Amino acid sequence: MLKFLIIIPILFFSRSTFGQTCCSGGVPLSGNIGFIGEEKGLFQFELSYDYNFLNTLYFQNQKLNDNSRKRTTQSILFKSGYNISNSFSADLLFSYVQQEREINQFNNINYTRTRGVGDAIVLLKYKVHGISNFNQILLVGLGSKVPIGKSDLKTDQGISLSADLQPGSGSYDFIYWGHFQRQFKLRPTLVVLSRIIYKQNGKNDNYLGSQTYQFGNEFQSLIGVGDIFYIKNLSITSGLSLRYRNTSFDKVNNVRLANTGGEWIYLAPSIGLSINSFTTLNISPELPIYTNLIGTQLSTDFRLNTGLHIKLKNYKSIKTIKTIKL
User: Is 97 among the domain residues?
Assistant: First the structure.
C-alpha cells in the first residue's frame, strides 16, 4: 500500500528527548503551503490553527503500554499568495508555535513549554502549459524554508532544549512541490487531486552552541477527492484524502540519531463552509491509520486544522478551475 501511495501522485504527476526516546511531532509547515488558483491578480490569504496531540509511544509499528509521556504542538499559521501572471504565482507562510511536553514517571512530573515565532516558507509556482486547461491544472513549485524562528531556547535553569522543542530549526531547507487536480464534465464540482512535497533539510551549525543538527529529509504524498454541495444559499465543500509521510533519521554532527524518522499514513476528512463569495471556513481533522517508526518514538494520536480562507478578486471576471481544500 505504501508503494501505491507513492506511485499514484507521480502517475498523476501531478523531538523532545527523554533518554533515547524522541518525538515524531513537529511544526506543520511544508504540508500547509501551496494555494491553488491560476488567474492573474488573484490574492489569497489564510489564517489557520493547527493542533497536534501525541500520546502514544511506538516501537516501530507496535504500540507500547506506556502512558508516561504526552506532547502537544499548537501552531498559528498565516499564509498569503499572489498570482503574478496566469503562469506564475508566489506564496508566503509564517508561523507562531507553542509546544508542550509532559513526562510523568515515579510520581514525578517534568513539564516543559516553549513558544515563539516559527520558521517561514516562500514558494514560487508555475502552471505547466500543455497539460493545464479549463478542467485540469498542473502546478510545480520550488521554495525554501527560512530559519527566522529561535533554535537556541533554554530552560529557566539555563539548560539548552533539544531541537524538536525549538520554535525554529536553525537551517535553510529546499522544498520541491507539485500539484495536479482534475474536474469532470458530468459533475464539474467533483475534483480529484494529487500532491507531492519533498523537503531537503539543511544543517543548523549552532546547535547547543557548537554542534550541528540536521533534521531528516521529508517526503509527503497526498491523494484526495472533493465535491461541492449547495443547501439554499450555503455552499459546502466536502473532501477526503489519504496522506503518506516519510522522514529519514536526524543527524547530530553528521552521525545518525537513534529513534528518529519513520513513515505514516493519515486519513483526513474535510469540510468547507462558504461564508460569502470570497470567504470560506475550513475544518479538517486527521487520524493516523498506519505508523511505522525507526526505534521508539512518541507519535500523533489526533490532529486538527481549522482556518479562514479569503480570496480577493472580481469573481465575475474569473473563469478558473474549482479548488478543494484538503
Answer: yes
Mean pLDDT, rounded, for 131-140: 85
pLDDT digits (tens, 9 = 90+) for 2-30: 443 443 343 333 333 333 445 555 667 77
The pTM for the full model equals 0.86
132: which DSSP letter?
Answer: B
For the chain, the first-to-last Cα distance in angstroms comes to 21
CA-wise closest residue to 313 among 107, 86, 118: 86
The model's pLDDT over 169-208, given as tens digits with 9 standing for 90+, comes to 999 999 999 999 998 888 888 999 999 999 999 999 999 8
* Rounded-to-10 torsion of CA 55, 57, 58, 59: 170
Pairing of strands 22-23, 296-312: parallel
Asked if 57 and 22 touch (Cβ cutoff 8 Å), the reply is no
DSSP code per residue over 31-54? GG------STT-EEEEEEEEEEEE
Q: Looking at the DSSP assignment, which residues form a beta bridge with residue 103? A: 69, 110
Instruction: Read off the CATH number of the domain in which 121 is found.
Output: 2.40.128.130
Residue 325 included in any domain: no
Q: Give the three-state DSSP class for 239.
A: strand
Cell numbers at 172, concatenated: 535553510
* SS3 assignment, position 144: strand
3-state secondary structure 100-111: EEEEEECCEEEE
DSSP single-letter state for residue 326: -
Grid cell, residue 47, equals 489564517
Burial of residue 271 (number of CB atoms within 10 Å: 0-12, 13-18, 19+): middle
Continuous segment of H or E residues that includes residue 9? helix 2-12
Residue 279, pLDDT > 50, answer: yes
Give me the numbers of helices (H) and strands (E) for the chain, helices first please: 1, 19
Q: Please count the structural domains in the chain.
A: 1
